[in-house]
User: What shape does this take?
Amino acid sequence: MKRRSEVSVGVVIILGLVLIVGGTIWLRGHGLGGGQRQVQARFREVGQLQTGNSVKLRGVPVGRVEEISLEQRGVGVIVKMSIDENVQLPDDPVVILSPESLFGDWQAEIFPRTRFPLYNYAESSDPAVLPGYSLPDVSRMTAVAERIAENIAVITDRVDIAFTEQTALNIRQAVENIQSVTGQLTGLLKAQERTVQGVADQLEATSRTLSSAAETAQRTFAQVESAISQGELASIVDNIDHVTAEMERLSGNLVDVSGQLGSAVASADTTFRSLQVVTNRIQNGQGTLGMLLQDTTLYGNLVLTNKLVQDLLLDFQRNPRKYINLNIF
Assistant: This one.
């Protein structure tokens, strides 16, 4: 019985030691059958983070915080973490510290940088050290909320001072003025819309006219091209050359006629001078015609003779037997 009691006590002690070692290992985040690897991250501050807090990836625990230490110059905090060696980190990983619960527990979560690109991460010159960012805890957020509440109270007081009944009336009048101006602008816009529509119609008509002109020009070019291809243009050029030659010949004839006209003008000039001499002689009463023009008696005799001849002819027409007596056997 005594020996059996000793064995029982030894078994209990061994089981206690196993439980203690296993619990310690579990609390430190070491798996019983898997390896661990070290990961470091740099932060400006770590809030309420403590050694032993969990490290998570996509919400799944993958390790524990092993050590928290200040940098040599105290400008940052280096957090060493141990995670399962079979965990694959995302591309461009970052570490974000945040409260895990309302009871003061914190956690370190690993994310890709693209998940929260606007955070101001604490970068490190060592590429093996991951960038980190610490979210504010509840107490800090409460303090910020208190400052915001104080600022809102100040703004409210200032609004109460500035916003009086007269201010409300002025605002109402301003709103009415804005409505009136809006109505005027609406009418102006409608008038401009009609004007723009008229301009658009004119542009459309102009576009149709230009299109028609373009079609006419295109047909003309086609006809010219057809004339060129069929040799009509060459014929037209030959005709123009022929007309040019004829005009040159006509020009030569005109030159000859101009010379002959000069001679005719000279002859006419001589004739006019001779006629002037004759006219002068007639006016001076020289020669038969001149005497006839100067002697009024001769003119009277001619008039009388003309009258006698007319009377004779009239009497002959009335009494032809008086002047012609024809006897036939």
User: Anything to note?
Assistant: The mean pLDDT is 79. The first strand starts at residue 36 and ends at 43. Helices lie at 2-27, 138-162, 165-230, 232-283, 287-294, 296-318.
